[in-house]
Write a structure and sequence with these properties.
Elements lengths: L4 E3 L4 E2 H9 L5 H8 L6 H16 L1
Antiparallel strand pairs: 1-2
Length: 58
């Protein structure tokens, strides 16, 4: 499940997002700058923004 691909355009996985959070990323904008996630597809951005916010709370 950790290798679940969240953004196929930029090959970003769930594990990548968790690693960014562990590095101290606190905003979706910074996550986008670091990984490219959700920068080319509005539905991808919306879904992954919600997931990112949920993961921050864990």
């Amino acid at each position: 499940m950790a290798n679940e691909q969240l953004c196929c355009c930029h090959n970003v996985t769930l594990e990548d997002v968790k690693e960014e959070i562990n590095k101290g990323v606190k905003t979706f904008k910074t996550l986008q700058e670091n990984t490219g996630i959700g920068t080319d597809c509005p539905p991808c951005e919306k879904n992954n923004r919600a997931l990112f916010e949920k993961l921050l709370q864990e």
